[in-house]
Amino acid sequence: MAVVLLVAAAGLAGPHQASALPGGGARPAAPSAEPEGPALSVDTTTGRKAIDPHIYGINFADEALAKELRLPVRRWGGNATTRYNYKLDAYNAGADWYFENLYYENGTADLPNGSEADKFVEQNRRTGTDTVLTVPMSGWTTAARNAACGFSIATYGPQKANDAQWRPDCGNGVKTDGTNVTGNDPAETSVPAGPEFTKGWVEYLNRTYGNADDGGVRFYNLDNEPDLWSSTHRDVHPEGTGYDEMRDSTYATAAAIKDADPGAKTLGPVGWGFNSLVYSGLDQKTCNEKGGDCWSDPPDRAAHGGQLFAPWYLQQMKAYEQTHDRRILDYFDEHIYPQQTGVFSGNVDPQTQALRLRSTRQLWDPTYVDESWINQPVQFIPRMRSLVEENYPGTKLAITEYNWGALDHINGALAQADVLGIFGREGLDLATLWDPPASTEPGAFAFRMFRNYDGEGGSFGDTAVHAASADQDKLAVYAAQRSGDKALTVIVVNKTTGDLTAPVSVTGGTAPGGAAQVYRYGQDDVTAIKHLADQPLTDGGFTTTFPAYSITEYVLPAESSEAKPPTAPGAPAATAVGSDRATLTWGASTAGSSPVASYQVYSGDTAGAPVATVDAPATSATVTGLSPATAYTFRVVAKDTAGRSSPPSTPVEVTTAAAPAATCTVGYAVGNDWGTGFTATITLTNKGPTLGGWRLGFSFTGDQKVASGWNGTWRQNATAVTVDDAGWNATLATGASTTVGFNGAYTGGNRAPRDFTLNGKPCTAPGTVAAAHIAAPVGHAPGAAAVPYRMRRR
């Protein structure tokens, strides 16, 4: 097993601030000369989860770079694909270029054979790369291989801008007074194209390249940023795309794809950014025009029960599967571009460089308030996961467009390396960088550090393990183990303007001595990754100096072949299964190189925290806090005294018993949640005899505290909470209800309470509504440059 450690330093690039010894070895720690950096730790025995290689994708990467990176996925996307006509090999550029019809020079004799889309797929097949192909869903496709445009000046009058060089008659659709041209004829550029058009394209691709399961096109994007069509393709879709249109178009188009190729995977709704989680395209257009209070109470949302767009959309996709017994949405896909001023646009002044390297925290960090018009924690990947878990479990997560800017500069390369590390650690399933860097640009070297750091296919691992930094803004650290040779890879991104000396500790997975291979890319030489002198190890770890503005990768030696983990525990059996608990018993593990120390019980997979731990030699544990009449899957893992974990046991499925008959019901609802605090109400209904006084009890399941309450006397002891009647509401007749409420504070998750009782007897809680794992975002008007110009470089 080997360990790869990547370190990137963030901050303004200075003139050769990071130096190296002759031969490339890391400089010895020199406390008097180098500032002390944050401690870094890696633990191979915890936090293990698979990294999907599809997170290392790129839109339109050239063949040489794709081959060198063994690029896992490549996307055909962007505004120009919304009206691509595969039969004509033509497209309309939309607002990217004067709404002009354009076409590829591939010849027409054999179309659709030999089209640009075919060439795209064929390149991917040559490099072993999966394809994400964007299919039209707007209802239109390009009508002809001609020079037509959506807003002819001869037809619609003078406009603020035109294609003066190539087609002077083609305007931008904006009158000289600043208002949009309206009433144009879509048929001047386009023809209707519905689900059957898309189905025909997929069927053609199946005939030509095989279906998804036989090496054909694997992924289909359900168009591109539909919530912007009223801007990007307003010559054919001038109205904003509403809730109902998105549902109905997705149902029809995705079903057509699945009809043609059941093994294909679909990605939607492909929104443009943060506001796509909050608003439909119709509400975005309406509120952009009306302004003011529209953003807090948009009409399309109001017409759909007040639900934000993203959860509503996922619920509709779930409803389709429940009705038709077929999943038509496989990936929840949203784009993200940093909204901080100058970051995406590629500015490299000192302030923007520092901002760019901070802003990657919006992908995950609940404490980072976005430094833009968003002005709130974004937590983009955890937020997407929370939306899926709450509204359509089993849906994977994709970001098919993102770009942190300055890929032609070392600062952009550091940000890109940080982003790729975050994607793997946070469990994203697929991502494709918009607009590839040139192979000689620093951004390409950020990908090489993950996909080919040594020029011979050396890559970051495919199973993430726990990695932590005492200060992620200075040294960001990521770690993963390779399944092929059991190498352990660790990535550290140093985000400061100076060299930092820091200790790196590694628990599990390394031999006590030996040396690590070292690879580095940084500002000293932005043309190559350098293979440096080996780094000596002591007790599996080391202390070293990380140069400013650099990415360093370490490959630590594997454990000796004699070092073995325990065997998997025997298959657990369940006994004493109640409504809220179950006792599990399993066969003991056989020790490997070290004695078995403990057993950990997991619910579901083993990526999260165990639900019970017992010290060996015990081989039984009782899991409590379960929900009544609920199915669970448990696995057991043994851990030895050296910290090595066994493979998980065979799973056992357990269904808890129904709850005992209750004399009351409660409904728990969170009315507002702002990330650190919340307001909740509890409606209590008496199902037993009339009461002359009552006490409600319940238990919090996380780190939650009652700050103040009403309609009763509130007390809390640790996680246990009681509420006594307030006197005036003491009498509770059979079938009568009363409502109490409180303001609370929390850290971590804000899950709903459990174990409700009335005067000591259990209540059922059929109406319990768990608080969102991540507070719903606050929507408001986007900044002036919120949607960046992203025409593909050619």
Automatic annotation (TrEMBL):
It comes from the Bacteria. GO terms for molecular function: hydrolase activity, hydrolyzing O-glycosyl compounds; polysaccharide binding. Residues 568-659 form the Fibronectin type-III domain. The keyword DNA-binding does not apply. Residues 18-45 are annotated as: Disordered. GO terms for biological process: polysaccharide catabolic process. Keywords: Carbohydrate metabolism, Glycosidase, Hydrolase, Polysaccharide degradation, Repeat, Signal. Residues 18-40 have a biased composition (Low complexity). Residues 657-766 form the CBM2 domain. InterPro entries: CBD2, CBM2/CBM3_carb-bd_dom_sf, CBM2_carb-bd_dom_sf, CBM2_CS, FN3_dom, FN3_sf, GH, GH44_cat. It holds the Pfam family CBM_2. Residues 1-20 form the signal peptide. This is Endoglucanase. It comes from Streptomyces antimycoticus.
